[in-house]
Amino acid sequence: MGHDTAEWVFVAVVIAVLVYVGVDSWIVQKEVEDVPADAEVIKVTGQQWFWSFEHADGTKEISTLHLKKGHAYKFEIYSRDVMHSFNIPDWVVFEDAVPGHTNHAWFAPNEVGTYPIQCREYCGLLHYNMRGSLVVEDDKS
Amino acid sequence: MVLELQKPRPVWQIMFSTHHTDVGYLYTITGLTFLFMAGVLAMIIRTHLFFPGEGVLVSDSATFNRIFTVHGLTMLFLFALPVANGIGNILVPIMVRYKDMAYPKLNAIAFWMNPVGGALLWLGFADVSWVSYAPYSIIRAPGPAADMFIFGMKILGISSILSSINFVVTVLKCKHPDLSLRRVPLFAWSMLTVSLMTLIAMPTYAAALIMMLTDRLGLSGFFNPFAGGDPIAYLHLFWFTFHPEVYIFLLPAIGMMYEIIPRFSRKPLYSQASGVFAFVMLGIIGFASWGHHMYSTGMDFTTKVVFMIGTLAAVPASGMHVFNFLATMWGARIRFAAPMKFAVGGIALFFSAGAGGVLNSAMPLDFISHGTYWVVGHMHLFLTGTIGFGFVAMVYYMFPYITGRMYSEKWANVHFIGMFWGTVQVFFTQHLLGLEGMPRRIYDYPPEFTSWTQLNQIATVGAWILGASFAVFLASLIYYSAKGKPANMDDPWGLGGKYYYPVAAKNPHGGHSGY
């Protein structure tokens, strides 16, 4: 019975690692959640089983979202029925769409291309097929 | 306890018995039966995902959703809980040197609720997923399956509360007066801890289930946003119960390893005190981390930080268990018989699952992994890798005592290699799939995502290996319980000395106590 030095050293090392993980993720998350002031708002609505988008100028899109390279965008995420989760895996955009709540996520694409959009919270029959795509285009203006 | 099975008895004598070893057998055998039933579902899921876009085995998503729901519910509530209760029933009264559980009839009632709850879950075959998030489970999930799910879970919840009361009273009130609580063996400590946790955690979910039922009936709108409710409330109630429940599944398996490791190391345990401390710490801290399942629901920054700290705080206590095992094995003359192999394999996988858990709890990383196959891999690494390995180790360990016969070490070895190999191949690969962005609970994925296809196929082959190893397990359990060589009951593994066997302490008024 009883502890000895080795165990205390072990526990201290574990705690040191955890403190590092905790502090580092605090710093990173603080940065991640700092939305740029000039971010353009895009309304994202999830419903069984597709995504629809509304740009700040009122343009509406279904399933395919067109954005410009080099701009910051802030998503306002809604749900019309059950819980969904708005996800663009390549850009680590991920936030639940909860009916009755407005959630936020933001990103600033800096590469042109087409990226998948998907739902990451189980939402019923066609959850697997609740997919869309993000098209990032060059800003010609 | 072996004597009871060596004289053949009609099965109804065991079924209607209230004796703790009989109820323990019933629990264990029921749990193992459900393990194989849910295992078949797992094989269907994995085989289906081998062929994207082809609808192999399961041709519609409705059926697929029902299959993964029932697979999860069965593995958690009809395998993990009953087997822990079964082994607990057999060993805890012996360890505290009492003639039976404190309330034998209550014990039998708690057991018999399991087949009833199990029948409701399987006959209903709901599609709500095991977390049954509102509002899907309220406004969209088809009845009567979802209602049968609610009643089935209700019954299983009551059963686990009843058996927890029984364990708490047995350990605290019925232990031998000469046995101080500090010296109670660690497996009994683990059952005491999880029973207290169940008593605190489970009523919350029981309330949430009733609220969900009245919501479904349209009588209330607790979680229904279209009737003024809030689905996030359901998530809080659910995870307040089921994050501690993670430890309720886990700790008995750790307790079983505490039985096995010192015996097969032929050395006393490194530290009883730190084992007790770590159990109690996990039991308390387990209640401080439920919010890490909800980072992405729109939780504010401060709340996320609080739950991250709560989650990380559980790690040192888990680490103390691992340290305790390693320090016990250090420099020991270890005998790697089947129970020891599974226990050591379980510790290795426990460590890797825990390391992955630290990454999950870090907020920025959680936004990459949450809701993907990473989480599937992570929690299966705990459930199969730690809990499964602990239980299997214990089944091999108890086998000679229960049947009076010896299993085959050769086939147990085949089982071990297959199970370890399979577990690593399926669940490590699923971590990678998660990093590739594949969401969990999906019926199908686009075949043109070649990295998803390849990783899924690797995982599926691993699952087949894992499944095959369990077929070996089942066959050898059945065959060697009837045809195995009679075991040397004093020392089945040739470890030397009776000291190592808790069964010798069965009779509180005589025999060797060992503790």
Give your account of this protein's structure.
- The complex is a heterodimer of chains A (141) and B (515).
- With 141 residues, chain A is α+β, with helices and mostly antiparallel strands.
- Chain A has two domains: 1-34; 40-137, Immunoglobulin-like.
- Helices cover 20% and strands 40% of the residues of chain A.
- Chain A has one helix spanning 5-32; strands at residues 40-47, 50-54, 60-62, 64-68, 73-79, 84-88, 93-97, 103-107, 113-119, 132-137.
- Chain A has a five-stranded mixed sheet, with no helix packed on it.
- In chain A, a hairpin with a 2-residue loop joins strand 1 and strand 2.
- Chain A is globular and about 65 Å long.
- The termini of chain A are far apart.
- The model of chain A has no long low-confidence stretch (mean pLDDT 92).
- Mean pLDDT of chain B is 91; it is low at 504-515.
- Chain B has one domain: Cytochrome C Oxidase, Chain A.
- In chain B, 70% of the residues lie in helices and 0% in strands.
- Chain B has 17 helices and no strands.
- By secondary structure, chain B is mostly helical.
- Classes of the chains: A alpha+beta (141), B mainly alpha (515).
- At the A-B interface, helix 1, strand 7 and strand 9 of A face helix 4, helix 6, helix 10, helix 11 and helix 12 of B.
In CATH, the homologous superfamily of chain B goes by the name Cytochrome c oxidase-like, subunit I domain
- Nearest-integer average pLDDT of chain A: 92
Which ranges of chain A are low-confidence, i.e. pLDDT below 50, for 5 or more consecutive residues?
none
- The SSE string of chain A, one letter per element, is HEEEEEEEEEE
**Beta fraction of chain B:** under 5%
The tally of helices of chain A reads: 1
CATH class of the largest domain in chain A: Mainly Beta
Q: Give the biggest beta sheet of chain A.
A: 5 strands, mixed
Count of domain modules of chain B: 1
In CATH, what is the homologous superfamily of the largest domain in chain A? Cupredoxins -  blue copper proteins
The helix fraction of chain B, in percent, is: over 70%
The SSE string of chain B, one letter per element, is HHHHHHHHHHHHHHHHH
CATH-level-2 architecture of the largest domain in chain A = Sandwich
Q: Helicity level of chain A, as a percent range?
A: 10-25%
Number of strands of chain B: 0
Morphology call of chain A: globular
